[in-house]
Amino acid sequence: MDLCGTQMLRLSSPHFKTLHLVRHAQGVHNIALEEKGEKPESEKLFDAHLSPKGLQQVSERRNQILESGLLNTVELVITSPLCRAMETSIGIFRGQGYVNISEDFAKANNFPPIVALEICRERMGLYPCDRRASISTRRTFFPEIDFTMIESDEDALWQDKEREKLEDVATRGLHFVKWLWERPEKEIAIVSHGIFLQQTLCALHGKVGIPLEDSLLTRFANCELRSIRIEKSDMEADTLMTCNCRNYVTPPSTSFHSHA
Fold it and tell me: How do residues 89-119 score in pLDDT, each as one tens digit?
C-alpha cells in the first residue's frame, strides 16, 4: 500500500535511515489567511491551533497509519514546538483518546516518544502564527511531549522585525537532517511545517545531491505524509559535513533516552 507517495532510495544498502515527514493539519491561521483574507501580522493568529477540519485530517491520517503498520515501526517522533504541530503529533501518534496519558502508559503500549525541537519549526519572524507560546504553558497541555531539549521557556528565536531568509531555513533543515542521522533510531517521524519541510527536501536534492522526484519537492498539503530514505553516503557529502546553522545550537544526540 503506497500510503504517502513514498519514494524509497537505493534499497540495496543496509546503511540507511527512513524519515517520515508530516506537515501539520489545517490550523485556524490557514483558514484566516487563505479564506478570510486576514493579514499574517495579526496577533489573533498567535501560535495557531488546529481547526475542526484539521482535527478531522489528523484522525484520518492516524487511521491510515494504523492500517499501514507504520505506527509499529516508528521509533521516535520529533515535533515542532508550535501548537498546531504538537496537536498533530499527539493526534496521529497517540490518538485523540490518548491525550494527557502518562509516560509509563505510553511505554507500556509501545508508543514512540515524542520530542519537541526548535530546529524543525516553521520559518520564523514577523508572523505571530509562527511564534510559540512559553514551554511552561505548553507543558501543561502536552504532558506527553518531551520538552527537555528546548532551553528557553519563552520564544527567543522569533523576531518581530525580520522574516527568516529561505536560505537560512534550508540550512537549518540540513543541520536537522545531519542531527537525525546521528541518532540511533532507524525510522523517525517528523511533524513540522510546509515551508520548513519543502526547503529541507529542496536542499537535500539541490545542495546534497540526493535524487528526489519532483513530486517530493512541492509544497506539502495539510497533514500530508511523505517518506524518504537517506543513506550513509548522502551524509558524507561536503555540504552536510560542513553545514552549520547560524544562531542555532543543535542539542547532542544523546540528550534523551531512545525508545526501546
Answer: 999 999 855 444 445 445 545 689 999 999 9
Please spell the DSSP secondary structure of 150-202, one letter per residue: ---SS--S--SS-PPPHHHHHHHHHHHHHHHHHSS-SEEEEEE-HHHHHHHHH
Find the helix packing angle between 52-68 and 83-93, rounded to 10°: 40
Check the CA dihedral 112-116-121-127 and report its sign: positive
CA-CA-CA-CA torsion sign (109, 4, 186, 242)? negative
Residue 143 DSSP label = T
* Enzyme catalytic residues: 24, 122
Compute the distance between CA of residue 203 and CA of residue 184 in angstroms, rounded to an integer. Answer: 23
The residue type of 58 is V
Cell of 172: 537549518
Residue 57 and residue 50: Cα distance in Å, rounded?
A: 10
3-state helix, strand, coil in the chain (%, to 5): 40, 15, 45
Of the candidates 63, 44, 65, 53, the one whose C-alpha atom is nearest the C-alpha of residue 24 is 53
Per residue in 224-248, pLDDT (tens digit) is 999 999 888 777 765 555 555 444 5
Topology at the third CATH level for domain 16-242: Rossmann fold (3.40.50)
